[in-house]
Fold this protein.
Amino acid sequence: MRSLILMTMSAAMCLLAAVPDVVHAQSNAQNSTPSSAQSNAQSMLVVVNSANPIVSLTKDQLALIYLKKTKKWKNDEPIVPVDQARRTKLRDTFSLEVLGRSASTMETYWQAQIFSGKDVPPLVRKTDADVLAYVRETPGAIGYVMPGTSLETGVKTVTVKD
Amino acid sequence: MRIAAIRARSVVGVAIFLLWTTAGRAQIDADKFTLHGYFTQGFAKADGLPLYGITKTGTWDYRVLALQARYQITDDDQLVVQTRYERNGLSLLNTTAAEIQWAYYQHQFGSVTAAIGKAPIPDGLYNNLREVGTVLPFYRAPPNFYTIGFETVEGIVLTHATTLGAWKLESTVYGGGITVTFPFATPDGPTVVRDRHDYNFGYQVWLDTPIPGVRIGTQFQSFQVSAGPTDTVRNSLFGGSFDATFDHYFVRGEYQGLTFKDYGPNGTDEFERDGWGEAGIKLIKPLSLNVQISQSAIHYPGRTYRWVDDRAVGVTYALNPSVVFKLEGHHHTGYDFDQFVDVAGAAGKSNFGIFSVSTSF
């Protein structure tokens, strides 16, 4: 029994030692890009503060950010994901397309995260304008808005790849 | 009771002091303070032996409430306090006043999170969600699987999260004091034994697969129990978990084996095997049908008996993810009733039902 415990713990530690630090690997910044770049996700625009050097993310990276499993950009700036209001069509679309689960399933997921003491869900802003204002004011923020939304200075879009 | 009250007040005092001193340096930002809570009110009634405080007369004295405050002190530091209040009919486990369930400081070291204080133990699927009505398909997580007290450790919890390609790995180690509560019935009536020891440790590993919602986990604990007025025995637990949760259905299950050293007759070891499984399907969008089976078996040399066998079916009606109604029926046999059932004889049985409404924010 004791040897089994030691073997299992050793295997777990080897796994931990072998894998890279995801926090940085998942938030690799790319070269800078014009702020008018369009997101590949047609149903939404993913936006960050214009001071953020990142220009593209994969859907998996974006999902890890919104699940709060990736917490810092490459420059060590904390990532602050901003969500749309609950029970809106845009949030439903984002949840299905990026997170792979319905918005209601994700709400239950966050309840489990909260009450198991792990983390709380991303901040919520009620309108596209509120999301943009928050992203403009917060260097590490990332949000999403309806396509066609007018972006003013201080905010840029990020390309989302599959 | 008085010592417990003093200890709870001390914990609250430390928490308030930390919050106060931190707030003094950096003004409290509304975006950094979050308040969450859950509440469930039930009506429960049994037709046989009393169980979990449920009797033949039925009771509305069945509810649980928790409030959780979290303050993000800096990008890497958080303070979490959760209070809890619970009523279970005639059960001796009722809390008569809100108690501090958690109070801990959490710091992020890169991909490692450290929690210090009275912190939740990550263990299995439902260890810290055992009464969160909007998350669970039934009123509570299987009580024979989740020992009362094992949800909290007064010590340190370290969690490391990483990814392996499309796989996600979360590993946790913890150690510290645990106060376990054993409710059991004697020929003289029900009683509760609380057993506290300070040198417990364990670990858990969760592996999220590339399929969203599918994960597997394994757990180990080394814990102490009192074997007499001055004697302490170290015991162990191994467990495994499976969870497949999708938008329209779910399948979950867990198994654990416990070894209690010198706990059986004539100083022999006692082995306990617990397992449960459940499945649910959304019939129409707000309405789900759920089934669950939960069993525990206890083994001594030359003797095995089924301590618990609970089979349940229920429906949930979710107005939205934050408001859920449930109706469930259980057929329960075994020896774990609130009324004494002699293990030398036949198992007791009872059918009970619970209607409940849960909300969380």
Observations:
- Chain B is about 5% helix and 65% strand.
- Helices of chain B lie at 2-25.
- The CA atoms of residues 145 and 274 of chain B lie 6 Å apart.
- Chain B touches chain A through 50 residues (CB under 8 Å).
